[in-house]
Amino acid sequence: MENPVVERMSEYNHEQLLFCNDNATGLKAIIAVHNTTLGPALGGTRMWQYNNELEALNDVLRLSRGMTYKNSISGLNLGGGKAVIIGDSRKQKSEALFRRFGKFVESLGGKYITAEDVGISPQDMTWVNMETNNVVGLPGKSGDPSPVTAYGVYMGMKAAAKKQFGTDNLAGKKVAVQGVGHVGEYLVSYLAKENAIVYISDIHEASLQRVSKKYGAIVVGLDEIYEKDVDIYAPCALGATVNDFTLDHLKCSIIAGAANNQLADETVHGEIMKEKGIIYVPDFMLNAGGVINCYAEVKGLSSEWAMGKAEEIYQTTTNILERSQADNVPTYKIANQMAEERIEAIGRVKLPM
To answer: 4-64+80-129 and 146-341: same fold?
Structure first.
């Protein structure tokens, strides 16, 4: 009988999975290395209270594959990986737990470089760094990646607007931003400066009120965000908000946001958006500013370089949309193909003589 875990690895062609357990610290984690053709696998660690281990496994497999494509399409010499720590990030953190996790990262011998993700703070990464140097996003290094991520999303959004509306000027355009955490807030700031009309929703009332007051954004309810008559929907919270239910309610003609894995089922919902005439800007390409920022730290490049690289997301978005139209293929599929083409081409370069 085939091992179901190995079967899942085969589905996305993962190279390696490391299951981490330590009873003394309470650590339960999974590290997924998807592909290292372009370089070491870089991707953040997220701490989340999953319902079960299978849910955590599915998440880490999807996220690590997304990192491979994100790094490839962004022109970075990095592979894709991801880690998840199973637990409540508000109650179960400790120095010992993160140092033990750092030892597991170190055991991969540089094949995986970790960073912050959902539920993880710079302090947590400092503890991980006590046991391994394969960490980026440390305090005092490349700094908060959120402005770079938001700038890339903003650039891609403008490129999509140029395609859909004939101009990339967002003044007067109605944009619904779902989630105003670090990245969402910076995105709101870019949109406000351009005099877009911005609607915001978030599970944290205090964040909503502060961002609304600071940038003049209009607060709407968690479900109401899907019903607003807007030009652009920008999901910047958790994934899978583009699904059967929301696609029956969304009135936008562009979906462009910072969240990972926005499509509940990329093959189904990618096709539905194409049929509806909604431009979907593939999330793993659009939100690559964070990993661009991390790459700058790995290579010792400046913050100006990172912002310049994020600006290139405008042209990459344009290329995807033009190719999607020419080939009559959904945008997610074109983005996947572009990422795979670079991996295949560089893979041939790296073959022994």
So the answer is: yes
Averaged over 165-181, what is the pLDDT? 98
The verdict on whether 82 is a catalytic residue reads yes
Could you identify the residue written with the tokens 């085969």? 10
Alpha-carbon distance 25 to 6, whole Å? Answer: 27
Tell me the domain boundaries of the chain: 4-64+80-129, 146-341
Give the Cα separation of 44 and 95 in Å (integer): 18
Task: Report pLDDT for 279.
Answer: 98
What is the homologous superfamily of the domain 146-341 according to CATH? NAD(P)-binding Rossmann-like Domain (3.40.50.720)
What is the DSSP-derived secondary structure letter of residue 241? -
Q: What does the pLDDT look like over 240-266, one tens digit per residue?
A: 999 999 999 999 999 999 998 899 999
CATH 3.40.50.720 corresponds to the domain 4-64+80-129: no
Residue 120 neighbours by CB under 8 Å, 6+ apart: 44, 45, 46, 47, 89
* pLDDT, tens digit, 9 for 90 and up, residues 272-328: 999 999 999 999 999 999 999 999 988 999 999 999 999 999 999 999 999 999 999
Active-site residue identified among 28, 70, 82, 309: 82
Are residues 289 and 153 in contact, defined by beta-carbon separation less than 8 angstroms?
A: yes
What is the C-alpha separation between 329 and 338, in angstroms, rounded?
13
DSSP letters for 41-106: EE--EEEE--SSHHHHHHHHHHHHHHHHHHHHHTT-S-EEEEEEEES-TTTS--HHHHHHHHHHHH
pLDDT in tens, 210-250: 999 999 999 999 999 999 999 999 999 988 999 999 999 99
Which of 136-145, 153-162, 283-292 has the weakest average pLDDT?
136-145
Question: How many Å apart are CA 75 and CA 73, to the nearest integer?
Answer: 5
Phi, psi of 228 (to 5 degrees): -65, 140
What is the chain's mean pLDDT, rounded? Answer: 94
